Amino acid sequence: MGRKKISGIMIFVIGMVLVFTLKACDFGSDPDQDQDGFTSFIGEVESFEFITHDNRPITIYYVLPPQINSETRVVFVMHGSGRSGNGIAHNARTLAILTNAVVISPEFTREYFTPNEYEVLNIWRSGVGITPPSEWTTNIIDDIFLKSVERFKLNNTTFILTGFSAGGMLAHIALMYSKSPYMDYAIASSPGWWSFFDESRYFPRGIRDMMSYKSDLLDRLSNRKLYVLCGENDNALTDEDGTRNWQGRSRLERAVNYYESAKNYAQQNNVNFNWELLTMPDVAHNSNRAIPYFTNIIGPVLEPVGTTLSGQERLYGKWYAVNNTLYVISNNTVTIFDNPSRSVISITDIEPVTNDNSANASYSHRTEYPDGYRIRGVYIDAYRTSSSSVGDNFNRIFYISSDNTSIMRTTGNTWNRY
Questions:
Q1: DSSP string covering 117-162, please?
Q2: Which whole number is the average pLDDT over 330-350?
Q3: Mean per-residue pLDDT for 146-168?
């Protein structure tokens, strides 16, 4: 799988994580929020209001990484047709934590933004046809980026644009046409249909009436990066508006065919082709399952822990993640993110254990996970979780891999260490 490498990989010292208790990151004197609006808890979804130049309100949901520094990126994660910026931001909490990114999820409500203004960026409008670039929704995305850079005091001058379903439609069309000087690259996942490089069909299904932007399109094919992403199980046969069958019978087919149309167009016009097609094994149409693939593309910046630690200290100081569930274990707390819940456990006891479950198929990695620790404690924070409450007991076993890069829970699920 292609991965965007980031220079200057950030090393998280164990001391940073040890302060990750009930208050986690104390950005200001107010335990809930300081004067700049920074979140008080790593992984918390917060928001602020943004007003467009034509006085339309947009709620900006965001998630901050554990520490903002000179390497912190901005990643837009655009919602689907359900128009829930809050929901997609919760799904993307792990992305913020693992890639050192400020995740920005604007909520373009139907009250103020038509599907045309959101999904195809107001590039085309009924009764008008192709609109001038000054009216494109990409300008609003740029304005939100600049506001976010100012608000969170960021050094980065570019953003990564990602989107799922209708958000993926927005992302790939923006990559094709946006005049933004700030967009780095884009990830477009699982839209219902794509804007094919087909000069016989009109925008947004094709590019027949976009020939005045042909030089821009060729530049995007060779000099910008689009990751075309779709789940291998996103293969339901659909043709909801009667025009999709020529693009492909399913979302997966349409993604593959769109990528091929772009590749062929680059070859026909003698330009290099810089895009990538990636599929997600065992994933259907599910944004929660897609976010980890976004994370892999963007690239974790946390270095894997070495093998020099011994004893129970091997558990401490790094993140463990699978899909959108994360664990961080220090010498006194366990913190769990399991979308959309968050829990913090005060550790009362850590007991060494040996993995004796080799006869059970669920525990087939006895050699790889020979030993571990039973952690007992009490929940001191339980946010939006139905399985535990403050004051409940915590009692779980974590087996540590022999190379110290992952842990296994007694359910057989494995979390990779970052």
A1: HHHTTTSEETTTEEPPGGGSTHHHHHHHHHHHHHHHT-----EEEE
A2: 87
A3: 97
Residue 77: per-residue pLDDT = 98
Helix (H/G/I), strand (E/B), else coil: 107: strand
Strands 341-354 and 159-164: unpaired
Amino acid in the structure at residue 257 = N
**Residue 361 and residue 146: Cα distance in Å, rounded?**
52
Q: CA torsion sign, 203 to 114 to 290 to 92?
A: positive
**H-assigned helices in 224-371:** 251-268, 287-298
Class of domain 38-298: alpha beta
Cα 77 to Cα 148: distance, rounded to the nearest angstrom: 14
Query: Are the C-beta atoms of 193 and 254 separated by less than 8 Å?
Result: yes
The token pair that represents 136 in the structure block? 């494109």
- Count of alpha carbons within 13 Å of 404, Cβ hemisphere only? 16
Q: Rounded to an integer, what distance in angstroms lies between the CA atom of residue 332 and that of residue 308?
A: 21
The residues, any chain, with a CB within 8 Å of residue 215's CB and separated by 6 or more, are none
User: What pLDDT band is residue 193 in, cutting at 50, 70 and 90?
Assistant: very high
Contact 164, 80 (CB under 8 A): yes
What amino acid is encoded at 86 in this protein? N
Strand partners, 267: none
Per-residue pLDDT at 36: 37
- As a whole number of angstroms, the distance between CA 387 and CA 287 comes to 23
What ranges do the domains of the chain cover?
Answer: 38-298, 311-417
- Residue 291 structure tokens: 């976010």
